[in-house]
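ugh finaly. both done.
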Amino acid sequence: MHHGASMKRSEASNALIREVAAPAAIALLILAAIVATIVHFSTRQSDQLAADSQNRRVNIAVEQSVIAIANDQEASTYWDDAVIQTRKRPLDLEWIDNNLGVWFHTYYHIDETYLLDAQDAPIYAMRNGQRSRPESFQQLARPALDLARRLRREIRVTKLSPDVGEGRTVGTSEFAVIGGHPALVSLKPILSETGEIQQAPGSEYIHVAVRYLDSSFLDRLARTYGIDAPRFSWAEPRTIAFPLRRPDGHVLGYITWTPFRPGAQVEGKMVPVLIAVFVAIGALLTLLLLRIRRSRVDLEVSRAEAQYLAFHDSLTGLPNRALFEDRLEFALGRREAKVAVLLLDLDRFKIVNDTLGHQAGDTLIREFGQRLTALTRECDTIARLGGDEFAILIEDACLPTIRNLAKRIIEDIRRPFELCGTEAFVGVSIGVALTPETGADRTELVRRSDIALYRAKDSGRNTFTVFSPEMDDSLKLRCTIEEELRDAVTTGRGLNLHYQPMIGADGTIVGLEALLRWQHVRRGLIAADQFISVAEESGLIVPLGEWVLREACLQSRRWPDLFMAVNLSPAQFRSPGFFDKLMRVVRLTGANPNAIQLEVTERLLLDNDENVLAILVRLRAAGFKIVLDDFGIGFSSLSSLRKFEVDKIKIDGSFVQHLGQAADSAAIVTAVLALGHAMGLHVSAGGVETVEQHTFLKSAGCSEMQGHYFSRALPADRITSLLGGERISSAA
């Protein structure tokens, strides 16, 4: 009997080996072979990708160095003073040092510079930041003179460069060996920028710049592009290298470096780990014979996964609203807890989602979560509350630390996001609330951070705001204004239009802009910019806009010789049946569509909506003129202007107000005027307040202006009396 029992146990053991252990062992060996093959292939591919990346970085560094030297040269050679000073005899060597010689070494890190006269004879030399004898040019005479002859042939054809990347003027460069060192030699002609100084083609003086490629250049390559131990080699090395080729294809030498091989490093560390893993798997397979044990493990895993999904966001893997509120409740329960809540909302997320698709939107949300994780501590809680809204819980918080964190988040989010092969730029608005001295419950703290977030968005977005009690009062006041505005829109009481004259080139009034005012019972006269945002958020902008259109069209009949400009909100423009409503207003008031100019903002064109284009086409066909308001501060492009075919662009008043104070404002205003005239568009300017601004705009060719310099916005009856004068020259 004992022998029979032993036989049964042996048979059972053999059956176990045959049916379970053997297949499991074979499967494990096959799996090990597959994993080993994948790891080996992946590491080799990783090393190759790393090598390709390093090669591209070196190529970019060399190409950018060529372009940078040419652009740096042009900054000093495309200049009337340079032509005058280089032909001056005797040479003003101090001027040459400061503009064409020593300065190039100090500021641009150029090793050597030379000046060649019309016969290619050296008249000046600088080496390593010190003025040198012109005879030192002989060490690079052979390559430099060949380049000079080539450059003079090009100058006889044209002085302008077809390659905008290397400047506006022609130039030439080449790798060469100078004094036993590899170098980049770049030549640029010294030309008159204004064209007022005439030079016979081919007789121009030439500026020669030399940068050696085996000294400081390699140091910057290592420091800037992360290349390990770069060095120069005359012979082709066996390791990775970048060849320096001359235009004729001849390889001058090679830039080589110690290649970074992440795959090999990872493989060396992964092999013992994988061995340990497979040993562990083998041990685990023996446990699979115990079915009950396996069932318990499976059940436990399933429960853990279910619990994880219940408290984490499936897209980002971050805690969800439920877990965030639980942790916030726990943090507030600690004695003398200092807790901060940051609510974050992505700016322009809807635009990315609509234009690039939901897949790009999901990628943006995931990467945004990853960036927040990298910027915060492990003990902080980052949660996705839904959509593009995130929250951060900071314990043991102090206000300076929170402010610094918010600034770093805003700065980091300004970096572009790589989405579906394109770069997307977004911003982030942040609302911050800290536990007050008397403490606060979870709901109150979140409410305060939400109020602060609202204020950050209202302040122009891409910023952060810390909650203060005044914000709560401001929100309550905003709600009160909304209720009172709703009553004003319904009854029409307190609403009226003022009209600001638009002045033509001859000083006469050519049109009026209708500006909405609200005569509040207690608060007095309220300008539109103080309540329009409330109207847009509450949906009151549509009926309010219809009232403005009706009143402006009616008043336009009083002044048939002037055009009437009316501002349209994007929400009003996109409201159902907008075109039909507008035509009904024109028909009922008897207004002339040809005398009505509809001003739209760049926000309306941003979505590139075909419905918007269709409505604009119908409006223009009906006789209305379309004006693009606040041009220059948004996102409009030349293609947008062509596609939507506006009739007029209006320069934003912020640029006009800074004329004479900021140089870029004058450049922008001049550029917009040139763009408008080139496209056959009328250009007007708002915000004119001084005689200097008026004089500049008039001399720049702006034929239509408005602002306090001429007149403030006035009620209709005062406009009639104002029209009695023949000309408006100032506010007086």
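ok and the 2nd:
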Amino acid sequence: MRKYHTIGWQGITVNVPENWRLAYARGTFKEGSLRVDDEQHPRLEVRWTKAKKNAGLTSAMKRFLAVLKRRARKEGKKLQLSESPQPFTTGSAVRNRELQCFSWSTDVNAWGAIWRCRDCNRIVAAHVIFHGRNKNFTLVKQVLSSVKDHPSPKGILWSARGLRFRLPHEFKLRRRRFRTDSSKMEFRVKPRNRLIVAWKGPAKREPDAADLTRLASRAFKKRSRRRFKTTKTERVLSHDGIAFVETKAKRRSRAGVPRTRKRFYGVAFFCPQRNRRFVIMANDRRRTLVSETLSHFKCH
């Protein structure tokens, strides 16, 4: 039986086969796109945009197909399009949605759907891509039917490249960095708070407190690297870990007015099941941001 896992990004969640992973993502909650690849090829693409007032699904479909045509023309390929009466999404996936299905082909074949959600007022287009002669309509239905286009009241699920946690809606993604041996995501929440979540692995040995504080420091660029000290050792998500604090926050000035930058506080731990080191920190003296993130965090 095929195993699945969940990818979550900017309020979009989708269940995909275990060997598919997020390869590309851009945009914001209002408008953006993501692509999911297997070991060799792109397999799923999702695009979303905030629906304009009185905008119909037909015009959104035309704009989406125009994007596919431009892409095919740049690649020197001939694109064949068709609107499909066959429902590629079923059950709860079609509730409260205006839905239209389609298919297209070049040297690959794809089946997808575009819809408008009446709850979040976003227009979402998603298609599953197959290479060669392999066609699996069961997989198409399972993937497209699993797409959810607005977050739950509990918050937005961020699940990609070894990180999985849930944050309140007001947290905005500021930057992210994905590599084969590490991942980092940084969020901003008003007025001046920042939250950083990162992992690095595989670990050659079980790290000690010094290793974990160095990991926290390296989450920043070299020119703006900060120093941390361990305040205590503690269990974090049932793993050995530490609590740490930035040693000293330098004073800086803006418009000639000096002020002290807010210090970072956080936790770091080693997960033996994934053989990875994780760090969660925020410039929040009360440490509520770190505690809330940990309560919705999964390391394995």
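summary for the 2nd one i guess: The CA atoms of residues 33 and 47 lie 4 Å apart.
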